[in-house]
Design a protein that fits this description.
alpha+beta; 2 domains; 164 residues; 6-stranded antiparallel β-sheet
Length: 164
């Protein structure tokens, strides 16, 4: 583990010599950690992805801005982040629908990418297809701001006892 002085030195080097993109990514990471510490986000990954969530009965909608933090080498959202968005939206929705003494964990997920993740934001619409006492089956579709389908996913979740 790096010391505080080493972390400060590393941050100073980025601030003094980094590009505007480096600065924006550093700010996003620091804002994410701060948001997690203040309770705005439950996990670091949702904090770093700057997720916004709304639930409208039959769907959970999770939106993330497209930022350089999410980019792959061809300047589109990395497929792993797209998959994480789908998995997180589906799992969050299931966890909101089950008793507090249980937690939903992903047992299987399939994703099909249909268009590049480009633009201002990605919006994931998750639905629960089946909610049983031991498993759940879900579906997610991810769109960009123009309504273009970027990816479609299905996920299965085990419902297991929550650890105290």
């Amino acid at each position: 583990m790096e010391t505080v002085d080493q972390l400060l030195e590393k941050a100073k080097g980025i601030i003094e010599n980094g590009s505007n993109e480096d600065m924006n990514v550093l700010k996003q990471v620091l804002d994410g950690i701060d948001g997690k510490r203040r309770g705005k986000y439950n996990t670091y990954i949702t904090a770093f992805m700057e997720t916004e969530i709304e639930e409208n009965g039959a769907q959970l909608v999770m939106t993330i801005p497209i930022t350089p933090f999410l980019a792959n080498t061809v300047d589109i959202v990395h497929g792993g982040f797209t998959a994480t968005l789908a998995d997180t939206a589906m799992g969050t929705f299931v966890n909101r629908k089950i008793p507090d003494d249980k937690v939903a964990v992903t047992s299987e997920m399939k994703i099909n990418y249909t268009a590049p993740g480009v633009g201002e934001f990605l919006k994931c619409r998750a639905e629960i297809l089946h909610l049983g006492t031991k498993t759940s089956v879900t579906e997610a579709k991810i769109y960009n701001e123009n309504g273009t389908l970027v990816a479609a996913a299905t996920g299965s979740f085990y419902l297991v006892p929550r650890k105290a």
